[in-house]
Amino acid sequence: MKLLNTFVKRHPMLDKKHMLLLGPTDDYFRKALDCNIEITILTEVSRVTVFQYEHARKVLLIRFDDFPALLLAAGDEHILRAFDFVISFTEYGMEPAAVIAATLQIPGPPLRCSLICRDKLRTRQALASTPANNVLFSKAESPAKVEAFILEHQLPVVLKPRFATGSQQVSILSHSDELSPELGEEWMVESFAPGQEYSCETFTVNGQHHLVAVTEKKLGGTSGVVEIGHCIHANMPNDPELRDWVFTVLDHIGMTDGVGHIEVKMDGNILYLIECHNRPGGDRIWQLVELATGFDMIKACIKLFANQAVSFLADYGRCAAITYFQFPAGDVESYQHPFDSPPEWVRWHEWILHKGMQIPQLTDSFHRHGGFIVDADTPQELEWRILQILSLTKVL
What we know:
This protein is an alpha+beta fold. The chain is 30% helix and 28% strand.
């Protein structure tokens, strides 16, 4: 690494920071463009878009699981035009971004934290000595190992891949005969946590944590664990006990700077950790936070790593929600929706169905049928707006 730094030559445009951005969606990329910095994108062929080609300084196409190629590409580009920092906002980009930051010795996601968050088993192990360790867990290398776990701790249990996202292949087992033989080192089993599920959206500066918003999750799908909606309003739980618990989790996973997303279930006064991430929550939760509180977590994170001041605005106290459609599986003969001319309070919408299409079973987040975001001044107004859109949307 010292050899690499020895031969770095600075670009004449020293008035602009240079960021290496891994695996962005166009929404994240647009946020970065607003920050008046040079942006080199490192991404995979399946993720790159025409918009990114047109507006990035340069696009590097490398598989995220090919770490030697990632480090060579980033290191070579760093010699030509030094990066001031590296960042990612997506699950599969966090670990590569942290490895690149550590190798090039530039600001970026903390390596230990990124490694822990990327692996659900490592997350549990890292918190083993904390109050958040109240969900029993084990590797699930084989059906026999899971059956032994069930015998010791009873049903139901949750079976999940350690590295997957979007609720892929997550299942709640109520009977041991539901076990799949296709288990191995990349699977884990844990005791089922009761209660209502929330996520805590956080922002950390130099180890100082801030709880920006609490988001209520709505679950559904064939497994009952697919996220079909998220909601933020002023009545969400936000007491000192919850904040202390969240900050303890962040401390133990090594979160030092940037955006955090802690998923938790609340059963009375008992808190159960589900997952934690050093990135924004999926399903456009970052947009809900911005609409409800006025705090732009994405731009704030870029400013933080660019060594610029970050301001925390006063809480707007507004409401925002994203709702995903749940339609029965089958063929689409006809449909109607209000999105050709939506009300101004519809802040985002997606409609992916077309006539003749076969609607798949809702087994994970990647099989959803579209959705929408609305905001409002009160929880009652928010709920009315959601019901209004749902009443205008039909699939036959």
